[in-house]
Amino acid sequence: MLNKLFWEDFVPDVRELMGEVTVDLEEVVAFAKRYDPQPFHVDVQEAEKSIYGGIIASGWHTCSMVMRLMCDSYLVNSSSLGSPGIEEVKWLSPVYPGNVLSAFRTVVETRASASKPDRGIVKTFWEVENEKGQLVMSMIGINFFLRREAG
């Protein structure tokens, strides 16, 4: 197992690959039927008549796939205390079954908590590209991590 990541280990301005995921048609439809049942996510015939020309993944499904890559690449092996939220999420291009998505993270800012000396705050910019290098999604969010040595 890797060494556990603490707040001090997050370095601004370093872009890191978190991993890749291949978008699966059955998962796209199953997710959408449960959480986002718009026709272009769940119905092949309707999706083919849509502006997308076929089934596309829900943006929320794309977020979920990226969340898994975050967990596998660093969050599960960290001192993460969770997140107060996402400041911004943009779905820039449709995500189709068969696309291979690569997700990257870049730490934008780190700062020690002013009120809780045992933790720090990390602001991160996440980018998701398809196999053609086209940007399909971006997010900016905040996470809390324990500090290796408090204040």
Describe this structure in words.
This protein has 151 residues and is an alpha+beta fold. The chain has one domain: Hotdog Thioesterase (Thiol Ester Dehydrase, Chain A). Helices cover 25% and strands 37% of the residues. It contains four helices and five strands; from the N terminus they run βααααββββ. The protein has helices at 25-35, 39-42, 44-49, 59-75; strands at 15-22, 80-91, 100-112, 119-129, 135-146. Strands 1-3-4-5-2 form a five-stranded antiparallel sheet, covered by helices on one side. It is elongated. It starts with 14 loop residues before the first strand and ends in a 5-residue tail after the last strand. The mean pLDDT is 96.
Q: Main beta sheet: strand number and arrangement?
A: 5 strands, antiparallel
- CATH architecture classification name: Roll
E-strand count: 5
Q: What is the average of the pLDDT values?
A: 96
Structural class: alpha+beta
Strand order of the largest sheet: 1-3-4-5-2
The first-to-last residue Cα distance is 27 Å
Reconstruct the topology from this structure.
Blueprint: E1 15-22, H1 25-35, H2 39-42, H3 44-49, H4 59-75, E2 80-91, E3 100-112, E4 119-129, E5 135-146
Antiparallel strand pairs: 1-3, 2-5, 3-4, 4-5
Which features would summarize this protein structure in a list?
Thiol Ester Dehydrase, Chain A; 37% strand; single chain; 151 residues; elongated; alpha+beta
In short:
The chain is α+β, with helices and mostly antiparallel strands. Helix content is 25%, strand content 37%.
